Amino acid sequence: MPKLPDPRENADYIIAEAAEEYMKPIKDIASELGITDEELLLHGHYVAKVDFKKLLERLKDKPDGKYIDVTAITPTPLGEGKSTSSMGLVEGLGQRKVNVTAAIRQPSGGPTMNIKGSAAGGGLAQCIPLTPFSLGLTGDINAIMNSHNLAMVALNSRMQHERNYTDEQLMRLSNMERLDIDPTNIEMGWIIDFCCQGLRNIVMGLGGRTDGFTMQSKFGIAVSSEVMAILAVAKDLADMRERMGKIVVAYNKKGVPITTKDLQVDGAMTAWMVEALNPNLLQSLEGQPVFVHAGPFANIAIGQSSIIADRVALKLGDYHVTESGFGADIGFEKFWNLKCRFSGLKPNCAVVVATIRALKCHGGAPIPVPGKPMPEEYKGENVGWVEKGCENLVHHINTVRKAGINPVVCINAFYTDTDAEIAKVRELGEAAGARVALSRHWEHGGEGALEFADAVIDACNEPNDFKLLYELETPLRERINLIAKEVYGADGVDYSDVALGKAKKIEADPELSKLGTCMVKTHLSLSDNPALKGVPKGWRLFVRDILTYGGAGFVVPVAGNISLMPGTGSNPAYRRVDVDVESGKVKGVF
């Protein structure tokens, strides 16, 4: 690999642009990995989809490789580099001549154009080509938006026609029976792939009787859609088609669920998703294969790369690195109790990423504010803050150990971290029962991640005792209590009247009571209060609502004040994104 720009002096997109001059054609990446021409669906020279059905059928008898999940401590608002560390680990394993693959999540346009960036990694540990990765890729999220919003089109149209016509006219004109939808009990809203707080609550259908049904509605960000969750957990097209018809859109006036199947829109919704079911193939900055499939936001969604991508990659690589969103309290917990339950796959190792910056934040340093300079307090050594902040790290190590998985702590190093600060993290992490590895992949790529790669190999070679936190026979409120106490550290759980009523109804339903549990909670704290750092004590989780994702196969308890539609900040990234009109190259994506 040629020498690339110094990440201490250059933005990620400049490094990516320089590396892209030396990218391997994606056909070569696929060929080296063992993907046949018939299984490769090209989208230009450097991006492709993989026909997973053909590949899995061909390799059905081949043993799976080692399975590694990358999670993190509770992050600052700036994030702590899970994607960067995933790419660094892949590059480090590549330096060790290991046959390695990765699966990461496709970035949402919301954070890409807002504050957090595109989630391609950073420095010398990135997924490339950066611009296609960041701006729509092969259209999976667009397909999800069209599929999801088609259900809302069908709902609003049906409500309008049921208002305008008698039962006899409905049957004669459209061969439809009245669903008697309750306009005050609508489960779904619309989606868009940007952060727009002004769309959280809307009124639609204003005008005359031909302008739709007037009702309150809402928008969520695209990756929070149940259709995205279905993409993450579906095993194949038949499974997706069945799940698509179980999406609960609304309820009738007797409280009976109205599904996409009832609206006769589930087939058309699936039609939008056929191509999206095939995972995307890109590469790391050092030329390792990276699958990109499904979406982010484990605080408001399942937040996992797809089961299909993992199944494909495990057949192709000896080691496979997958990624879960945010901290181990939400991303890893959903990997553990939802994704692994649905897939039947058992991980060999879990990585908990930590930065000195985040540990200082949990130890008492001022909380960084996105879009503003890093507080001066972070520029000097403060071992005391790091030591106090390691309480949060140890909490997450213990969560991984409760799953029976071997934990590896990755100190995602920045060049301003001091030897004393790093030594304290190593001391406390090892005392908690984890392997601890210093990794300088951001600054040095794979060469900087050799200690990290070796620690993961060692962890994968040890036996583990993977076990789920709960069985599906466990009543919903007992599950929520288990997650709150065992994973978040809460003293217990309280419910709003609305949430309590829904919980009782779900527990009494033979089908709904067997669905998994996908928590919605802030990623900025172990608690439901984003201002509480470290390991909060003496608090109770407040569940204000419970949603039903019948197609994805889980119910969704919503804790605290978190919204399914994030807001755009005052200094968003789109202000710095532009195009060179001579070359057509996009500048400023990070």
From TrEMBL:
One of its GO terms (biological process) is tetrahydrofolate interconversion. Transmembrane segments: none annotated. Pfam families: FTHFS. It comes from the Bacteria. Keywords: ATP-binding, Ligase, Nucleotide-binding, One-carbon metabolism. Pathway: One-carbon metabolism; tetrahydrofolate interconversion. InterPro entries: Formate_THF_ligase, Formate_THF_ligase_CS, P-loop_NTPase. SUPFAM superfamilies: P-loop containing nucleoside triphosphate hydrolases. This is Formate--tetrahydrofolate ligase. It comes from Desulfoferula mesophila.
